[in-house]
Each structure stands twice: as C-alpha cells, then as structure tokens.
Amino acid sequence: MMMWVFKQLKWAKLAGVLVWALVTIATSLNAHVLTETSAQVILRDGQIEIKILTDIEHLIGALQSEQAWLLGDIDTVMPQNLSLSQQQEFIQNALKQKMHLRVNNKVISIEAVIFASESNDSEQNMAHGQEIVFHARHSFAQVSELTISFHKSLGTVHISIVKPQYILLNAGDVGHFEL
C-alpha cells in the first residue's frame, strides 16, 4: 500500500511540474503581445509622420462593438464579414476621421494612411502589433507647438515626439549634435 502511495505522489509531482511549465511558457508568450498603443510623431521640414503601433485584434473588436457605437465612441460599427483590404480601409477612414492634428495652432489635414508590415506573417503581426502610418504636410519653418488626439478605440496612447537633426558628414569627419 505504501508503495502505491509513493507512485501516486510521483505522478502528481510530475503532473504539477508539467502544469507549471505550461503556465510559464504561456505567460512568457503572452508577455510579447502588445497591450497598449504607442505613437511616434516625427516632425520633419514641412512634413509630419505619425506611426501608430497597436493591437489590431483589439482595435477591430473596439470598432465592431455596438456598445461603443451606442456610447458615441465610434460613428459606425465595422461589419463582421469584411475582407482584409476592406478592414484596412475601414480602419484607415475611422482613425483618420477622429485624428485631430494642429501645428502652431493651425489645423493640419492627414493626407495619407498606410498599413506598414515588416513581415508577411499575419500571426506575427498580430502578436507584435500592427503599424499604421499617417502622413501630413505643414508650411511652417519652425514648429513650436503640436496638438494631437486619437480615435477612442485606440485606448491609451503612449506618444513620443521626434524632431530629427540632419548633418552631412564627409569621410573621417565627426558629427556633433546639441540635444
């Protein structure tokens, strides 16, 4: 009888180790899934580029939510049976409509919206987020103020603003930048 109890404990211990291993693997895989939206605003001479990195499945779910429509968070509910290109077009139009951009207190219109993808593997894109890039132009020699707001369906957005400095270095020269 005692031997049978030890065998049962041995199997229980093995099962516990397997469950722990599976939970650890699942947790580490989940740690790489994008949970919040980030935006990088790049101010160049006469141009603005806004790169948004978001969880596309969450965004589609938010745009297909009838509750969000009833609350006024979205203007139109995204249909369920759209093709990939139709989904992208719907998302582009929805985000472009609700993005408000002002430079030096002047309203700036978004001219183009592009879905960027470094990989053709759609599962990999879903896990690491989808990049959506917005392009606009402005006529200011110096940008001193920027105001931006995003579509509510993106949720909380972490924004970084980049103002590149350009310099031409000849062979062997050293570049010095004041930040």
What would the keywords be for this entry?
179 residues; 3-stranded antiparallel β-sheet; 8 strands; extended
What does this structure look like?
The protein is α+β, with helices and mostly antiparallel strands. The protein has one domain (33-162). Helices cover 36% and strands 26% of the residues. It has a five-stranded mixed beta sheet with strand order 5-6-2-1-8. Strand 3 (100-103) and strand 4 (106-107) form a beta hairpin. The longest helix has 29 residues, at 2-30. The chain is extended, with a radius of gyration of 24 Å. The protein starts with a helix and ends in a 17-residue tail after the last strand. The relative contact order is 0.19.
Overall average residue pLDDT: 81
Q: Main sheet: which strands, in order across?
A: 5-6-2-1-8
Count of the separate structural domains: 1
Q: Rough shape? A: extended
pLDDT < 50 runs, ≥5 residues: 26-33, 119-127
Number of helices: 5
User: Whole-number radius of gyration?
Assistant: 24 Å
Strand runs, count: 8
Instruction: State the end-to-end distance.
Output: 76 Å
Q: Which structural class fits the helix and strand makeup? A: alpha+beta
